[in-house]
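Ops channel
N.P.: pipeline sanity check, posting one input/output pair.
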């Protein structure tokens, strides 16, 4: 039955779009909190299972790991193309693709992750602690998980890399299946479905909170238009070509990064002041606690209920 459904969705991608729209519609119109609770459990568990599976595959093929890393390094720095006089172009393409896919994998510097980080509680009770957690997330996501995925694909063999018909997630599915069997492809399909689904509702929630802030009194109308646009984009994403989706995503993320990096530069004095405060408390042997009154620039800009005073 699962294979029949997979074939249906493969030949009729709009069918998957309709299914996603049917599931997402009740969520974005009122059931986000319950789904968010499920996502908090499902996503970390699925990510952990995928990482363990990827590391297991790497461990079983540990003898091929040095060659895999050499392939990554040669491709990244254009060493293989240098003999053909195309080194400069190869390096520029490697850097461009690295930045594009890096942004897509961890969203660092785009301004989306702070929406989730701002709602999280930290221990120690200091905003700098959440900053370190976000830095750790970038490391695990890009340098650990993405490198493990690259190793799986490369160690699957040159015949897999030579094929042009497989790209995107299909390449990872075929590579993992070659290592662990057919169930590997199904595992990747389920994992990506859950990641994509939770990403849609998470990014929707980011957009809704920002639209409510920007629209003011007209928020109900603006949010309704936004919800309909999100449902429309779900369908577009289901039927559009992979290349078109990547190009649109790269353009959107580039625009977000440019705007957000300017904001980061403007906020950097406060960020460094918070870090120095955090570091000073640690060196004094204290558990860091955030006190907004110590920062004149934050007067009347911090929600007192978010950072209660500690005795």
């Amino acid at each position: 039955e699962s294979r029949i459904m997979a074939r249906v969705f493969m030949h009729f991608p709009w069918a998957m779009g309709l299914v996603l729209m049917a599931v997402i519609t009740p969520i974005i119109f009122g059931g986000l909190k319950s789904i968010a609770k499920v996502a908090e459990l499902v996503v970390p568990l699925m990510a952990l299972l995928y990482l363990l599976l990827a590391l297991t595959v790497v461990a079983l093929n540990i003898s091929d790991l040095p060659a895999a890393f050499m392939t990554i390094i040669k491709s990244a720095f254009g060493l293989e193309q240098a003999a053909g006089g195309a080194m400069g172009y190869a390096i520029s393409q490697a850097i461009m693709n690295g930045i594009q896919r890096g942004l897509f994998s961890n969203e660092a510097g785009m301004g989306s992750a702070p929406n989730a980080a701002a709602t999280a509680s930290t221990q120690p009770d200091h905003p700098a602690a959440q900053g370190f957690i976000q830095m750790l997330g970038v490391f695990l996501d890009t340098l650990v998980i993405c490198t493990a995925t690259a190793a799986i694909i490369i160690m699957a063999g040159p015949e897999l890399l030579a094929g042009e018909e497989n790209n995107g997630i299909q390449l990872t599915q075929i590579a993992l299946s070659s290592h662990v069997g057919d169930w590997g492809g199904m595992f990747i399909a389920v994992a990506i479905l859950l990641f994509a689904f939770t990403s849609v509702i998470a990014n929707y929630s980011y957009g809704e909170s920002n639209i409510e802030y920007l629209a003011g009194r007209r928020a109900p109308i603006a949010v309704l238009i936004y919800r309909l646009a999100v449902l429309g984009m779900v369908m577009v994403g289901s039927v559009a070509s992979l290349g078109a989706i990547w190009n649109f995503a790269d353009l959107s993320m580039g625009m977000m990064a440019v705007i957000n990096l300017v904001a980061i530069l403007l906020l950097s004095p406060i960020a460094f002041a918070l870090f120095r405060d955090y570091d000073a408390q640690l060196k004094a042997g204290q558990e860091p606690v955030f006190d907004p009154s110590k920062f004149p620039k934050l007067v009347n800009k911090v929600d007192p209920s978010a950072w209660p005073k500690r005795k």
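N.P.: looks fine end to end. The mean pLDDT is 79.
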